[in-house]
Amino acid sequence: xxxxxVPLWSKxxxxxxxxxxxxxxxxxxxxxxxxxxxxxxLVGTLLGLPLDAGFDWxxxxxxxxxxxxxxxxxxxxxxxxxxxxx
Length: 86
Description:
By secondary structure, the protein is mainly α. It has helices at 8-26, 33-39, 43-47, 51-67, 73-84. It has one domain.
């Protein structure tokens, strides 16, 4: 987020998308449970979990990784290498 080579609009898009996803995750009543149960009717029944317990966190993690495509790939690779290949 502090890299000056990344455009400001990319940073704003990333942060606003994460904020929106967190709002949906922390306030699940905003998202209509009827829609979720129509899309994935057996998840809660088969796993014994509430429908939005595991699915929301999984969707959030996948969306977070997908949102990294907003940033230039060489910059993401550079920061990834710096974090994980010390």
